[in-house]
């Protein structure tokens, strides 16, 4: 009887462990290139709720998980502004999302997001992932972490995931502009030359 109880307990542990691993993998993995991203509704720094459906004329989106506190994000802010300026009118607006928990990173509170957006004159929405529900769906792990989506009949399909370019801290050293190359290819109805790169930045605080 004792042996049976031990075997039953071990079997339960295996089942629970397998479920836990699968759940963690599902959260960490997130979207892959070719997946269709679901829409979201998040609060912008102007207090309004924003979703991808609010852009009926868009051809796609540049969704960037970023924040106030990470030096890598700060180093990329001007590049993010430039991306929006260059591609918004061509149909690929930037949608920035702060995924961090402000209890762990007070610099990333909603009030500080509003101040940052104002001081940098952000030309794009800067959304707060309240409850941290959206970034796990995407599989974002860093700030910044970038996703280029293409609007299709099937929905917003992920075409690129990774870094903005190949120089995370020094814009003057950039030689490969991954996001720009991806959008240029999509606008020309061509295959994206590089679909995945490693996102380099600070870990998301949850």
UniProtKB/TrEMBL annotation:
Keyword presence, Signal: yes
The UniProt record lists the keyword Signal: yes
UniProt xrefs under InterPro entries: AhpC/TSA, PRX-like1, Thioredoxin-like_sf, Thioredoxin_domain
Superkingdom of this protein's organism: Bacteria
Gene3D superfamilies tied to this protein: Glutaredoxin (3.40.30.10)
Ranges where the Thioredoxin domain occurs: 31-188
PROSITE patterns: THIOREDOXIN_2
Entry keywords, A to Z: Signal
Position of the signal peptide: 1-20
One Gene Ontology term of the molecular function aspect: antioxidant activity
Listed name of the protein: Thioredoxin family protein
């Amino acid at each position: 009887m004792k042996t049976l109880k031990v075997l039953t307990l071990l079997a339960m542990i295996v089942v629970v462990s397998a479920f836990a691993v699968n759940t963690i993998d599902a959260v960490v993995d997130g979207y892959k290139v070719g997946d269709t991203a679901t829409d979201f509704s998040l609060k912008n720094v102007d207090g309004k709720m924003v979703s991808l459906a609010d852009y009926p004329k868009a051809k796609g989106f540049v969704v960037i998980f970023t924040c106030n506190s990470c030096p890598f994000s700060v180093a990329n802010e001007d590049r993010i502004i430039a991306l929006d300026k260059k591609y918004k009118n061509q149909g690929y607006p930037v949608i920035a999302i702060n995924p961090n928990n402000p209890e762990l990173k007070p610099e990333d509170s909603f009030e500080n997001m509003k101040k940052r957006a104002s001081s940098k004159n952000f030309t794009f929405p800067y959304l707060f992932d309240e409850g941290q529900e959206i970034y796990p769906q995407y599989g974002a792990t860093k700030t910044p972490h970038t996703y280029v989506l293409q609007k299709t009949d099937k929905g917003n399909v992920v075409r690129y995931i990774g870094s903005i370019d190949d120089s995370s801290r020094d814009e003057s050293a950039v030689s490969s502009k991954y996001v720009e190359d991806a959008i240029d290819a999509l606008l020309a109805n061509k295959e994206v030359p590089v679909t995945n790169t490693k996102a380099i930045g600070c870990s998301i605080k949850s």
